[in-house]
Write a structure and sequence with these properties.
heterodimer, A: about 425 residues, alpha/beta, seven-stranded mixed β-sheet, three-stranded antiparallel β-sheet, 15 helices, 11 strands, globular, B: about 375 residues
């Protein structure tokens, strides 16, 4: 326990001080942290899923509060919660399947039953999932927490001996399955670039001109994959002030042999009439299909819409956030240091606080993110394929549970 | 002048004083425009200051000021050029067996080609040169040389006064009626007309805030910011990527222009089109302030067919941020080009109103002004 606490505090510090760059690194580290929290969590015999969920929620709440703008943290917390619920559900349906089998032949001993339950778990889970999953009116109206309800109902038949042996093996299995699934999640996060880059050839033809802003590793791998398949195209990179990450991307593209032209952000409207496609990365994708992207992206999206140039956003599935944005320019934005625009002390000679009302005459605004509304986006390319912005809300059902949208420990009885 | 035609470029190079070297890593789309290496000619020309006798020293000085970027902005360049021409005309004497008008016109043309070599002409300068040449052509042969020179001197004086200085005052008078108390005004870069409007409105006691949007590589907004903060206006400073964030608070957008073309397109500092587009998207009125002498009968649809290319090295380096040095040695790799556009063309649909010394007109009325008040009657 103290081990995980130290790890959690360490990670919280890094998040608060904005030391981790990029949503992929954040997502991976969050998943690894939650994995260690889960593996070190002691689970009781009954309701292990509930205990795991509470533990993850407790840590998750702190992580989200540390950096509310980094949506990938919340996404991964919710993904892990969904994994716990899913694994618990599949184990329960397997147990029900096993209990049904044992009701048929009572003389079989525990080992066989366990073997049967593991063998038939997949099939029974798949069959039973369709009956147990869809919300019936009763469960919707009763508002019982699923994690508390499920293990109890399965204990209503069968003898207690088999039950305890079943439960202990199930508790080991639950943690084991959850950790396996979290490992798969980490694997997905790490390899999302490859799966997106595989689709590059479908979208880039010969002699194309592509525009991008700032620097995104997904975009770099995407373009490089197209180049590997011998498509010849040119890239305009807008530098993306005031972080100037476009310089980095231009250098990498040139190192890999692509014709690159670096332009200033002010020249985007001037050059976009000669561009065939705009391909950009995103910081986060919201449930309505809106995109939180590095600052300047809305400008590019508006210019692309005016010139009827397709605006393609590349995003790994860990960036899909199940929340709908409200006033995202202010609430999901961060203002960075004004020293990136004006040097400290540069204007100290003409700022006289003694005159007038004493309030500063000079105010510098340096937002970090921009919001692109879904109607400006032509296509999302994720590791599961290409999607319309209006479809993104359906993907949420694959990755997240409805109960986890607000990550908060319930203070009421029922834990 | 087609810079993608090799034979013509060779001929031009032989005649020119400045001897520019062509840039490596030229951007393909802009092969029809001159792309020269910057920074190499200035020391050479400075050393030759007292040796050139084909050029009047005042013109030479102005050329060097253009080359180094000391004088920048349509009005400032035009006034500097005309004042240099005034001095040149004052020191001019007709050689025997030549008429004043023809010889002087030829001399002015040679000065102009030198200035073009230093930095391509702006539209304001082009219109002023056309005016001057037409005035020289109109001088009756009966006039003596001193009288002719005096006429020309006063014509130039009148042009500067009426077309630029008084025109600016009229524009300011019109524009301050569009500023109400509680307004948040956004401006881009540094335009002399807009600066005068803001200062005058502040002197009249109107309560408003100013948002100054700036961009790379010139950071002209910083100069405007300094002057306005000194005068006591409350300003917000940001960069062009953040305009979607700041545009929520803005009530009016004031922009300057290098020229307004006959199809209503506003030809102005690069980035103006982005600002106008976002303002139009937020349903905020865009007011362009431009003196009428800058109107031109040419038409342009995009920013590529006609533009000016600046120094690409100013993009690879970021002043004050030494950690951004990824592009050191960029000219060695043949795959990388840096593009430093100076101007861009804003479509007329984004512009709500153009404030000129002839009044406040919609963009569609610009060809009317060019036709009625263009060549024929020069004085109001």
């Amino acid at each position: 326990m103290p081990d995980t606490q130290v790890l959690v505090n360490d990670f919280l510090n890094k998040l608060k001080k904005r030391k981790i760059e990029g949503s992929q690194a954040t997502a991976r580290q969050t998943a690894e942290l939650l994995r260690s929290v889960i593996s070190q969590q002691r689970v009781p015999y009954t309701n292990q899923a509930g205990a795991l969920i509470d533990a993850v929620k407790a840590v998750g709440e702190q992580l989200i509060a540390a950096n509310p703008v980094e949506l990938a943290v919340g996404n991964i917390v919710r993904r892990v919660l969904h994994i716990i619920r899913e694994e618990d559900l599949s184990l329960t349906t397997a147990a029900i399947g096993g209990l049904n089998l044992s009701a048929v032949s009572d003389d079989e001993n525990d080992d066989d039953r366990d073997g049967d339950s593991t063998l038939s778990a997949a099939a029974v889970a798949a069959a039973a999932r369709s009956t147990l999953r869809p919300p019936s009116l009763q469960t919707l109206l009763e508002d019982t927490p699923v994690s508390a309800a499920v293990p109890q109902t399965s204990s209503s038949g069968g003898d207690s001996e088999g039950k305890t042996a079943d439960k202990s093996s199930r508790s080991r299995k639950l943690k084991h399955d959850v950790i396996e699934a979290v490992n798969e999640l980490i694997q997905d996060i790490v390899t999302c670039h490859e799966q997106i880059a595989e689709q590059a050839v479908e979208h880039i033809h010969q002699n194309e001109v592509i525009l991008t802003l700032g620097s995104s590793r997904t975009v770099l791998e995407f373009l490089f994959a197209a180049k590997e398949k011998k498509r010849s195209f040119r890239v305009f990179v807008a530098e993306g002030a005031p972080r100037y990450q476009g310089h980095l991307l231009a250098k990498e593209l040139v190192a890999r042999g692509l014709q690159t032209t670096l332009i200033t952000d002010s020249a985007v409207f001037a050059m976009i009439s000669r561009v065939n496609m705009v391909i950009v990365g995103a910081h986060a994708v919201m449930a309505n299909g809106g995109v939180i992207a590095p600052v300047g992206m809305n400008l590019v999206a508006l210019a692309a819409q005016k010139h009827a140039v397709p605006f393609v956003v590349l995003a790994g599935s860990h960036k899909l956030c199940p929340l709908y944005p409200h006033n995202p320019e202010v609430l999901l934005n961060e203002l960075r240091s004004p020293s990136e625009l004006l040097d400290f002390g540069e204007f100290s000679d003409c700022m006289d606080f003694g005159s007038g009302s004493g309030s500063p005459l000079l105010h510098v605004v340096n937002p970090a993110f921009d919001y692109v509304p879904p109607k400006l986006v032509s296509l999302f390319i994720t590791d599961t394929g290409g999607h319309n912005p209006s479809y993104m809300y359906r993907l949420i059902a694959d990755y997240y549970s409805a109960d986890d949208l607000v990550v908060q420990r319930r203070a009421t009885a029922g834990n | 002048m087609q810079y993608d035609d090799k034979s013509r470029v060779q001929k031009l190079k032989k005649r020119s004083v400045v001897k520019p070297t062509e840039a490596r890593n030229r951007v393909e789309l802009f092969r029809h425009l001159p792309q020269y290496e910057h920074g190499t000619q200035l020391p050479v020309l400075q050393s030759k200051f007292f040796q050139l006798d084909t050029l009047h020293p005042a013109v030479y000085k102005v050329g060097l000021q253009y080359l180094s970027g000391d004088i920048c902005g349509g009005n400032a360049r035009c006034i500097a050029m005309l004042q240099a021409f005034q001095e040149a005309i004052r020191d001019y004497s007709t050689p025997p067996a030549k008429t004043l008008s023809r010889d002087l016109t030829a001399k002015i043309s040679s000065y102009v080609s030198f200035l073009i070599d230093c930095r391509p002409l702006s539209v304001s300068m082009g219109n002023a040169i056309r005016f001057l040449k037409s005035q020289i052509a109109k001088i009756p042969i009966s006039l003596s040389e001193s009288e002719a020179k005096a006429t020309l001197h006063s014509d130039i004086e009148r042009f500067i006064n009426e077309k630029i200085i008084l025109a600016d005052r009229v524009i300011v008078k019109h524009a301050v009626t569009k500023i109400r108390d509680g307004d948040v005004l956004l401006t881009y870069g540094s335009s002399s007309a807009v600066e005068m409007i803001l200062q005058h409105a502040h002197e009249l006691g109107k309560q408003f805030r100013v948002v100054i949007v700036d961009s790379r590589p010139k950071h002209e907004g910083k100069l405007l910011l300094r002057r306005l903060v000194r005068k006591g206006l409350s300003c917000t400073y940001t960069h062009i990527n953040a305009i979607s964030y700041i545009m929520h608070e803005v009530t009016r957008v004031f922009l300057g222009a290098s020229s307004v073309l006959s199809n209503g397109t506003v030809y102005s500092r690069v980035g103006t089109a982005c600002v106008a587009m976002v303002a139009y998207g937020f349903h905020i009125p865009v007011l362009v302030c431009c003196e009428a002498y800058k109107f031109h009968e040419r038409v342009q649809l995009d920013s590529i067919c006609s533009n000016e290319l600046g120094d690409p090295d100013s993009i690879s380096k970021v002043p004050g941020r030494e950690d951004i040095n990824h592009l050191d040695g960029w000219d060695k790799s043949e795959n990388l080009q840096l593009l430093n556009l100076i101007y861009d063309a804003t479509p007329s649909d984004y512009v709500s109103l153009i404030i000129t010394d002839y009044g406040m007109i919609p963009p569609t009325s610009v060809p009317v002004i060019v036709r009625e008040y263009g060549r024929g009657q020069l004085w109001i």
